[in-house]
Amino acid sequence: MLYWALVFLVVAIIAGVLGFGGIAGASAGIAQILFYIFLAFLVISLIASFIRRA
Q1: Which of 23, 42, 19 is nearest to 9 (CA)?
Q2: Reported pTM
Q3: pLDDT of residue 37
Q4: pLDDT digits (tens, 9 = 90+) for 2-51
Q5: What is the DSSP secondary-structure string of the chain?
Q6: How far apart are CA 17 and CA 15, in angstroms?
Q7: Are 19 and 4 in contact, with CB atoms under 8 Å apart?
Q8: Which backbone phi and psi does 19 adopt, to 5 degrees?
Q9: Which of these, 54, 3, 53, 51, lies nearest to 31 by C-alpha position?
């Protein structure tokens, strides 16, 4: 999932440089959403691993 967030971030940067504002905004929004989902899964997995060790 982090891979896709980075892909959309790169697409947003390239589209922004080339002047495609709508595509850049949409790609950046998707990248941001995927990044936050990835972070939530990371926190959940860390909590689960700490609970299993205890």
Answers
A1: 23
A2: 0.70
A3: 92
A4: 787 788 888 888 888 888 888 888 888 888 898 899 999 999 999 999 99
A5: -HHHHHHHHHHHHHHHHHT-HHHHHHHHHHHHHHHHHHHHHHHHHHHHHHHHH-
A6: 5
A7: no
A8: 95, 15
A9: 3
d(CA 22, CA 30): 12
Boundaries of domain holding 49: 2-53
Total structural domains in the chain?
1
Token readout for 28 is: 């950046």
Provide DSSP, 4-19.
HHHHHHHHHHHHHHHT
Taking each helix axis from N to C terminus, what angle separates 2-18 and 21-53, rounded to the nearest 10 degrees?
Answer: 160
